[in-house]
């Protein structure tokens, strides 16, 4: 009896959950209609987002603008009465899992062409699994990943950085190596730099921007809420048309927790393989077809799961 009522409860709960999900899906599906930018309103580029306001570059000036629909750095928005009145359809999205609800994605940035994954070969040491995670997040959202191996003036083994099948540029902000090459890769694109703290993202931005006499957008220090996040957000515009959005949330992106389930969604081909166990994690189970097949994808998978 007790068991049955528990099951009933669960069934009711599932139904409620289903209904809630349907309502939410409807709501999300309805949103784009209200988001279409009004052609009469001025248009700007979002470079930073705080709780109620976002930093928007409009005609070379940065303003703090209220919003009540979700916006992200890289969004092109129209503005009416100092409020976001519309958001242009997003060409690409950079997302991470919502820690409170792993079934939902949280938008980190929009309309980014290039994700520059910055890594050092030493100080801090190279973390191959982290590079994999960035590549997965980028490819998922239609963004091209680029690996920037910095601090090549220091002693270190480069072989671990050569296994990725993505454009790779070797840099040093101390010697200037690779800076021109990186600038050429960025030309005409909107990009973000991400990577572990201390790998040299700020130094790279300075190297790219300073020599270029870049115009840099800063947010007015004295206005608005969520000042910390929005004031720390910057847009670096290079003469070759590159736009680099530098936002704290993006710099730190990808360093949080990751689950086995998330990793597995990035390797859909493994689920079709005839492992002995249906819920095989492909690590140490017997008769694992994925492990037996091996290959570079499996090597990436192992690197990712070893960081769990
Ligand atoms: P971020 O946390 O990724 O923004 O890293 P920073 O740009 O703040 O750099 C962290 C430290 O690494 C600073 O002390 C920099 O001077 C140093 N650094 C940056 N680039 C290089 C480089 O190419 N070679 C060496 N040896 N040190 C670097
Ligand atoms: Zn397996």
Can you offer a commentary on this structure?
Helix content is 31%, strand content 25%. It has 9 helices and 14 strands. The protein folds into 3 domains: 43-87, SH3 type barrels (Roll); 93-246, 3-Layer(aba) Sandwich (Rossmann fold); 261-305, no CATH class. Mean pLDDT is 84; it is low at 213-226. It has 308 residues and is α/β, with parallel strands linked by helices. Helix 2 packs across helix 9 (296-306). The chain is flat. It starts with a helix and ends with a helix. A 7-stranded mixed sheet has the order 10-9-8-11-14-13-12. Bound molecules: guanosine-5'-diphosphate and zinc ion. Guanosine-5'-diphosphate (GDP) binds next to helix 4.
**Coarse shape:** flat
Give the radius of gyration. 22 Å
Chemical compounds bound to the protein: guanosine-5'-diphosphate, zinc ion
The tally of structural domains comes to 3
What is the highest CATH level, the class of the largest domain? Alpha Beta
Largest sheet: 7 strands, mixed
Mean pLDDT value: 84
Helix content: 25-40%
- Total strands: the figure is 14
Given as residue ranges, the uncertain stretches (5+ residues, pLDDT < 50) are 213-226
What series of H and E elements makes up the topology?
HEEEEEEEEHEEHEHEHEEHHHH
Q: CATH homologous superfamily of the largest domain - what is it?
A: P-loop containing nucleotide triphosphate hydrolases
The CA-CA distance between the termini, in Å, is 41 Å
